[in-house]
Design goal:
Elements lengths: L6 H23 L14 E2 L5 H8 L4 H15 L3 E6 L5 E3 L4 H7 L7 H15 L1 E8 L9 E7 L4 E5 L6 E8 L2 E6 L9 E5 L12 H4 L1 H19 L5 E6 L6 H14 L18 E6 L9 H14 L18 H28 L6 E5 L8 H13 L5 H7 L20 H11 L6 H10 L4 H8 L4
Helix pairs in contact: 3-5, 7-9
Length: 464
């Protein structure tokens, strides 16, 4: 059982025994902590990849990557969140008075919680890291209660690690030479800045971005777009061969000819203009170009788009990319997107937020709500239909299938005959019948209740 340490007691313990506690804690936590930072490397660990370049090449420059990040962000941020209080073994009740519940309703004066989550997921897929700050009250009766929540740009935050122990010490936010620092409690490891990160196989402190894995496809797509644009501006021709027969051009004439071709016969504004050349022994200009097959760059772009969408776990069908037949219809593709991508991020952020907001509490927790998500309407309808048609489970078991709380009289099984409890029907037969009662009368009686002859025989134990 984890018991929280009061802040004043933790500070007193740290002031008196802090150095030994830190040393013992790092040894107890992991034996490799001390070797994660090489000697003389300094206390800061900066991210090795260029986040600003990732953001420009993906979100601001590539339409496929932008759409993938946008569809992830809009779907993820559309899900509402609530704070629940645990009452009993399997009973939870929404609470609106808890400070965290008020925090997610209005996290700060500038942002809604939906926009905050949009930034959180977008930063995570673009950089592999998301940093969230909670601002607590310093004075008054609610001292220590979080009142505001923010999401910060990941490229401006770096991690500070103790070079001797290899233990996390804090985070530093830096912009234009100005710095803000958050220290990590050496005993409880609590901090007012929380680091959401993805798995990275070769980095101990920072997460791996989706854009890092899809960088080659995104760069290729961007270069192909630039090349195609320039090619179209020149009538689909890569250039023109100018042949001088009989003599060589002087440097002056060569520069004059080159300048004329660039100024008067290049670019979209000069399409179709006639070319007049002169020379001592004759000058010949021959355009060369591509065949329609060579100009068919659309399929190549579609192939790159499918690979980029694959990296972001977005079905190409949702992107409007032709040629993908993985799903039979749009509804299946959208459901697969939620099950494979959105649910992972929802569970990931839920667990991280609970570890941050309620580290020592089993009474409260934060969770997402999927009741009003249009993409899941079809799946929800099928689940309700399946629960409604199930005749071998109790009412409360049916309600549990559709995420509804139990009811006091829900521990009974209903049968099709006017949907009355099965034990009541059997009791009515036992009380009203006798051993010498004609079997036909019994079957007629059950038939009036809505049962077929076969169902009546099975109910009476006369047929298996």
């Amino acid at each position: 059982m984890n018991i929280p340490i009061p802040r004043f007691l933790a500070n007193w313990i740290f002031n008196k025994y802090g150095e030994n506690l830190i040393r013992n804690q790092s040894q107890k936590a992991s034996k490799i902590d001390k070797i994660l930072i090489s000697p003389g490397s300094g206390s800061a660990r900066w991210s090795e990849h260029d986040y600003e370049n990732f953001a420009k090449e993906t979100y601001l420059k590539n339409i496929i990557a932008f759409r993938c990040i946008d569809i992830l962000g809009t779907a993820f941020s559309s899900v509402p969140w609530k704070v629940y209080e645990v009452k009993g073994s399997n009973n939870k009740t929404e609470t609106k008075e808890h400070p965290v519940a008020k925090l997610i309703k209005k996290p700060n004066p500038l942002d809604s919680f939906s926009f905050l989550m949009l930034k959180a997921i977008s930063f995570l897929v673009m950089s592999g890291n998301t940093y969230s700050e909670r601002v607590k009250l310093d004075t008054g009766p609610n001292k220590g209660v979080a009142k505001e929540l923010y999401i910060h740009r990941p490229d401006r935050v770096h991690i500070e690690v103790n070079t001797d122990t290899g233990q996390l010490e804090g985070y530093v936010y830096e912009v234009q030479g100005r710095k803000v620092q958050w220290k990590v409690d050496p005993i409880t490891m609590e901090c007012d800045l929380w680091h959401f990160k993805t798995f990275h196989p070769i980095n101990d402190w920072y997460g791996a971005a989706v854009t890092e894995s899809a960088a080659r496809e995104i760069d290729t797509s961007n270069e192909a777009t630039e090349w195609n644009k320039k090619l179209l501006e020149n009538e689909g021709r890569p250039g023109m061969v100018v042949t001088i027969t009989g003599s060589n051009l002087s440097d002056e004439k060569f520069e004059k000819l080159e300048k004329m071709l660039l100024e008067k016969h290049s670019g979209v504004e000069n399409v179709g203009r006639n070319l007049i050349l002169e020379g001592e022994k004759g000058t010949k200009a021959e355009p060369y170009g591509w065949t329609p097959k060579d100009m068919d760059f659309i399929e190549g772009n579609n192939m790159l788009a499918r690979r980029i969408a694959l990296g972001f776990k977005v079905p190409p069908m949702l992107m409007g990319i032709p040629g993908d037949a993985t799903f039979s219809n749009y509804e299946e593709a959208r459901l697969a997107f939620w099950e494979e991508a959105i649910f992972f991020y929802l569970n990931f952020f839920r667990d991280e937020l609970n570890a941050w907001f309620f580290p020592f509490s089993d009474k409260y927790f934060i969770d997402y709500v999927l009741d009003d998500i249009p993409a899941l309407a079809g799946k929800r309808h099928r689940m309700w239909e399946r629960a409604n048609k199930a005749q071998f489970i109790t009412i409360n078991e049916k309600r549990a299938m559709v995420s509804l709380p139990p009811v006091p009289d829900g521990g009974v099984i209903l049968v099709p005959s006017n949907l009355i409890p099965l034990d009541m029907l059997l009791k009515e037969y036992e009380d009203g019948g006798s051993e010498d009662e004609d079997e036909g009368k019994v079957k007629d009686k059950l038939k009036k209740k809505g049962l077929t002859e076969e169902e009546s025989l099975k109910l009476l134990g006369l047929k298996e």
